[in-house]
Amino acid sequence: MKKLGIKKGDIIILAVVLCIAALSVLCINLFNHTGNVAVVEVNGSVVCELPLDEDCVYDVKINDTVTNTVVVNGGEVEVKNANCPDKICQNHSPINKTGESIICLPNKVIVTIKGDSTEIDGVAQ
Amino acid sequence: MKKFISVLLSLCFAFSLCGCSNFNMQQSYTKSFIDLFDTACTITAYDTSQEAFNEHFEDVYSVLKSYSNMLDIYNDIYDLNNLKSVNDNGAKEPVKVDDFLLGAIDYGKQAYDFTNGRVNVAMGSVLSIWHDKREEGKELPDMQQLKQMSSYTNIDYVIVDNENQTVSFGAENVSIDFGALAKGYACEKIAQYINDNDIWSNCVINLGGNVKTIGTKNGKNYNIAIENPRGDDYLCTVGVSNGKSVVTSGDYQRYYTVDGVNYCHIINPDTLMPVDYMESVTVICNDSAYADAISTMLFTISVDDGLDFVEKDNSIEAMWVDNSGQITYSTGFEEYIN
């Protein structure tokens, strides 16, 4: 210690600064972390964001008519009560991974799961 | 002095720690749209901020929109000669078209050759009958009428004049349907545009399930899921990056039902009827347009014949799901599966 010329005070300062650094990194990561959400878009604009950890039912209304119902249940999202002719959105199995989406082309409704990291970067279909 | 240096060094270290989580990495941004190519499209790209992404996205989207307009066979676009203009007037006079459309039609003619006629963009006259019946959703087309129109599907009737930038038809009733190639061709061209203009180094372009990758996902492969034609969840996910493309042709995206039987949108050029022995074919290769053409070709021939073709071409790997749910892989396909 004496040879290097480092004093007790130096070590304390070093320790304190390191603690602050570690804490700030921890805080940044903690506060940045938002849970996964289902983002509902109609005709290109976001109409709502539903957290996947709360069960809920959201009716998509276009001109006061319910066109699709988005259901969040047990961390999964599915679309019900679709008034479109092909019902592709309604027949789609529930989604739960970030990057997945259910799309109703006739009603221009897109439900996408968004979160910190993407698990699925695309679906070939 | 020493104290000062130690504080300075610690601070540097502390800031570098923060940097790991914030400064160095670009974030991924995603936007979906459903107003082009009559399908759902998604672009995911790594960019410095939401604003930067939005700006780049607008640029890419406007180019994609021009592609979609040019390949449109149903709508007239003001001040633009698109495929509909070519189909409406090509038999009367040569129609002058943009570089992109000229290249696309030329590629369609090449696709006829390298798929041994299984992908024929000159099938428009037959495909439009099927399209109309599918939209109505009531009955099958009249076979007599289909056969009659099939005499106008010779690819040599489509004449591309590269010097004068025109397209014309060698007979009446000829029409082009670019549906089998449109998304793959546009995907490949927009990837070139993104590369040539240094818009994004890392992104995934997904045009209606035709997926093209550029760069990597933080140095790793992107995870591309492959839709399960019949069941829940996915068949598998494949890891691809650096220009690789994943394209699936399936019987489940566009179809209609008559007397309890489903008729898909992919028509066998020999029988003029929808293919009924395949659920889906997925192709992985570098060129998205080639992948789109080959997946359509493989969809219309037997798994054995398809396997022969794929094993001879080192640039492609494929996975088949036949109508019994049986899955077949080409030799190298499984190496991509996560």
- Report the order of strands and helices of chain B: HEEHHEHHHEEHEEEEEEEEHHEE
Percentage of residues in helical conformation of chain B: 25-40%
Alpha-carbon distance between the two ends of chain B: 55 Å
User: Strand sequence of the main sheet of chain A, in spatial order?
Assistant: 2-1-7-6
Helix- and strand-based class of chain B?
A: alpha+beta
**Contiguous runs where pLDDT drops below 50 for at least 5 residues of chain A:** none
Overall strand count of chain B: 15
Number of strands of chain A: 8
What shape does the CA trace of chain B take?
Answer: globular
> What do the pLDDT scores of chain B average to?
92
Q: Mean of the pLDDT scores of chain A?
A: 86
Supply the helix-strand structural class of chain A.
alpha+beta
How many helical stretches of chain A? 2
What are the key terms here?
heterodimer; A: 125 residues; alpha+beta; 4-stranded antiparallel beta sheet; 2 helices; 8 strands; elongated; B: 338 residues; 8-stranded antiparallel beta sheet
What's a concise summary of this model?
The complex is a heterodimer of chains A (125) and B (338). Chain A is α+β, with helices and mostly antiparallel strands.
Explain what the structure shows.
The complex is a heterodimer of chains A (125) and B (338). With 125 residues, chain A is an alpha+beta fold. Chain A contains 2 helices and 8 strands; from the N terminus they run αβββββαβββ. The mean pLDDT of chain A is 86. With 338 residues, chain B is α+β, with helices and mostly antiparallel strands. Mean pLDDT of chain B is 92; it is low at 19-23. Chain B is globular. The longest helix of chain B is centred in the first third of the chain and has 21 residues, at 2-22. Classes of the chains: A alpha+beta (125), B alpha+beta (338). The A-B interface holds A 5-7, 9-10, 13-14, 17-18, 20-22, 24-25, 28-29, 32, 41, 44, 93, 99-101, 103, 105, 108, 110, 112, 114, 118-125 and B 2-3, 6-7, 10-11, 13-15, 17-18, 20-22, 28, 30, 32-35, 39-40, 42, 44, 204, 206, 208-211, 213, 217, 222-227, 232-234, 237, 246-248, 250, 253, 282. Strand 8 (122-124) of chain A pairs parallel with strand 8 of chain B, so a sheet runs across the interface.
